[in-house]
Amino acid sequence: MIELFDVTKRFGDEIAVNDISLRVEKGELCALVGTSGCGKSTTLRMINRLIEHSEGEIHLDGQPVRTFNEQLLRRRIGYVIQSTGLFPHWTVARNIGLVPRLLKWPRTRIRERVAELMGLLGLPPAEFAAKYPHQLSGGQAQRVGVARALAADPEILLMDEPFGALDPITRESLQHELRDLQARLHKTIVFVTHDMDEALALADRLVVMHRGRIVQQGRPIELLREPVDNFVASLLGGVERGLKEAGLTRVSERMLPLGPRLLARERVAQTAPLRDALSMMLWHRVDRLTVVDDDDIPIGELSLRRLVGGRPE
Ligand SMILES: Nc1ncnc2c1ncn2[C@@H]1O[C@H](COP(=O)(O)OP(=O)(O)OP(=O)(O)O)[C@@H](O)[C@H]1O
Q1: Could you give the CA distance from residue 307 to residue 74 in angstroms, rounded to a whole number?
Q2: Where are the alpha helices (DSSP H) in the chain?
Q3: Domain named ABC transporter: which ranges (predicted)?
Q4: Are 217 and 294 members of one domain?
Q5: 239 and 286: one domain?
């Protein structure tokens, strides 16, 4: 668990982070969003003490970070940044094994761990272990960055715009992988992003910052439904908030059981977001879809009226 109590950071006269309090539970993914320069990266870097906070307290599992040895603290916390920070003259395997080597793990254990992580992140060792960073695509280099951050099995991962430089398709696939990893490994993650869709898709807790302060935090759906002010509303998508909310709600939450009517021709998966169902209705110019389970068996139907949250007909 990560806790910030009334934390402030000053650079000279400038207040970069202004009296923020935040609690990230174990296993939670917390996304920090806000306009450029609002203090997101500074907040992240105060947690692993790349930047020292000026006032307040930051605790990891109840212990103030100031009391940790800095090196040991950073080895306990994985850190992933947009530019990856890989060492260019080291192979992929050596880059991933960096922290376990610093921790003086036995060689065979490091080798096994590196191979395990490469498998986990879809980088077959036979193909990638001996490559150098310049021989990788942007997406592959980011995977290596994530593997390196996970190497010593840290409980906490700090990720600063980790997928910022990637094309939308690679980005989405890494977001899926991160979500799968999170479901399996239960890391506590603080994630900085400029991309609201990314934040909404990944976050358990969404934190909106503005000029060094936290203006609102909560579950993404809560912020979408009840933004505290116009700034939060517009950051979260303005008039598109309805679509973004539909992106967070599953078809199964609105569908009705199969009725006596004929099955609608177009089918949608029960696990799909309502947004996809709406898009299908618009595309096919229909107002009813058949809902199917994972085996493509019809289990219900979704009408446009139900989709928008109207009363069942
Ligand atoms: N080392 C530093 N020295 C002086 N000022 C700094 C330093 N690092 C950050 N700042 C200032 O602190 C404020 C917050 O910066 P920070 O990088 O945390 O913002 P951010 O929200 O991550 O921005 P962006 O989204 O553009 O990356 C900015 O005004 C920045 O100029």
Answers
A1: 47
A2: 40-47, 70-76, 92-96, 98-102, 107-120, 125-128, 138-150, 168-185, 196-202, 220-225, 230-235, 241-248, 274-284, 304-307
A3: 2-236
A4: no
A5: no
Classify residue 218 as left (phi > 0), alpha (psi -120 to 50) or beta. Answer: left
Render pLDDT for 123-141 as a digit per residue (tens, 0 to 9). Answer: 899 999 999 999 998 888 8
Reported as a single tens digit per residue, the pLDDT across 71-121 is 888 878 988 887 778 899 999 999 999 989 988 899 999 999 999 889 888
Q: Which domain holds residue 158?
A: 2-244
> Is there a single domain that holds both residue 237 and residue 255?
no
- Report how far apart, in Å, the C-alpha atoms of 144 and of each of 78, 113, 260 are: 13, 13, 53
54, 109: one domain: yes
DSSP code at position 250? B
Q: Is the pLDDT of residue 313 over 80?
A: no
d(CA 4, CA 237): 28
- Predicted local confidence at residue 311, as pLDDT: 61
Residue 33 lies in a domain: yes
- Asked whether residue 156 falls in the same domain as residue 300, the answer is no
Q: Please check the confidence at residue 289 and state whether its pLDDT lies above 60.
A: yes
Best residue for ligand 1 mutational test, from 38, 45, 195 (most atoms within 8 Å of Cβ): 38
Q: Whose CA is nearest to atom 3 of ligand 1?
A: 11
> Do residue 286 and residue 150 come from a single domain?
no
